[in-house]
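Entry for the shared binder. Reason: the reviewer on the internal report wants the predicted structure included alongside the sequence.
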Amino acid sequence: MSGDRHHHDHDHHHGHDHHHDNSELSETELRVRTLESLLIEKGYVDRAALDALIETYETRIGPKNGARVVAKAWSDRAYRDWLMDDATAAIASLGYTGRQGEHMVAVENTDKVHNLVVCTLCSCYPWSVLGLPPVWYKSPAYRSRAVIDPRGVLAEFGLDLPEETELRVWDSTAEIRYLVLPRRPQGTEAMSEAELAELVTRDSMIGAGVAREPGGAS
């Protein structure tokens, strides 16, 4: 698979155990739900507050923060250069910072290169920029196949890349997390940043998809 590269620029030191099969993941999820139910029953956690927190990450934060970053980079060359040089600072300038102090790195899609993000050991993800990770991002199947057969994975997402396009796979960690700067759709030259942000999807910012075309379905 010439042209496909997997980047191991740093070690995974997450400070917690990693489970790699479905039974262990299911057991963990069961324990979390049991603990959640117990805390609510004992009155330590308010269900409405918990639901509000989850809703915040799913919708109000969600991928909207990242979409604003991408739209600004598309519209402002100086900001784009800053984002590529120091993504942590450029993203923080818009008010979005990681809860655990992790560093952000931006990688740019071009007509010759496509970037895909994965976390091979668990599911490290830039929550402050993209909200909650999709379920498939955390699955062992995606985490392994994104490295072994990234073109096949993208094809299953409906993204068939030309053979001449170089595919780079970036491995997130607790310390460094990646944001893909997707290609700007054609015909958007007159659009405002707010309008451009509506074209940016969560999947396009981790490389599993591309930005919407103007006038396309949401």
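Summary line for the report: Residues 18-61 form one domain.
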